[in-house]
Amino acid sequence: MANKGYQFQAGSFQVTPEVKADFDTNGYILVRNLLNETELKKLKGILEDSDVIKEYAVDINDGANRKSRLCLWNQPGNDVTGMVARSEKVAGTCEKLLGGEVYHYHTKLMMKEPFTGGRFVWHQDYGYWYGNTCLFPDMMTVFIAMDPCRQDNGCLKILQGSNRCGRIEHKKTGGQMGADLERVDMLKAVCPVVSVEMDPGDALFFHCNLLHTSSQNDGPNRRWAFLCAYNRADNNPVREHVHPLYTKLNKVPDSAIVDCTVDWDVEAKDFFTQEKRDAYWKSRPEPEVDTSQN
User: Fold this and answer.
1) Which sign does the torsion angle of CA 60, 62, 67, 68 carry?
2) What confidence tens digit (pLDDT) does each residue in 206-217 have?
């Protein structure tokens, strides 16, 4: 069922034992229409042509002469984007999939523009977060498609079931952390490569050890995605880092997304500025790894 996806229906979608088993076995579940047309329109209206996004977005070099844009913030706040991240159907579902209380680790808008958007090399999110002293991989991300995600504009590709291999070595490549490609190739022999094509409003809930990648945007259509990351409350990082320590997440009903009247709660966000990003990479002196085959 995980490949085809589950259909979200307000008031009836549940993390059943079958759904939980799919997540644990495959490393992800795909939920169609998690955001309905009204919610998606409101969220896109906030993000598109936003001075906030323009001010805080940074370039992500893909090591292959292309780049994507990223805007990231650590705290959800009380605005529309925060209501999405705090909603029961997003945060509440993550709690059921991870088996415990979660808090907001960060939210980001990933922007791949037509013909110029960069790739993301094979990696696990825990390849980053391990270095932030989160001791256990009790973490996950919700990838919500803002645009159609297709193979020609750089949709996600995943190694189904690779979450069960544990964390593998990662090293810096360009402005990213890339997984050990020899290990990735070994896993490809036993874990199917799945291209996750999504329509706007669809959401991929995936475990932090699931290996994933995405190609450059070679098509005429942009590929924007809204991603919310969560850490389990009992997995508080040992040391302070660029992302927050445990902060109580006050969940809201799904209706709060449409009901919210605050476009941006800028002061509450704690944006990941270029200065913070530069400091983050200075704390990771690992040599670069060749990822040219991907």
Assistant:
1) negative
2) 999 999 999 889
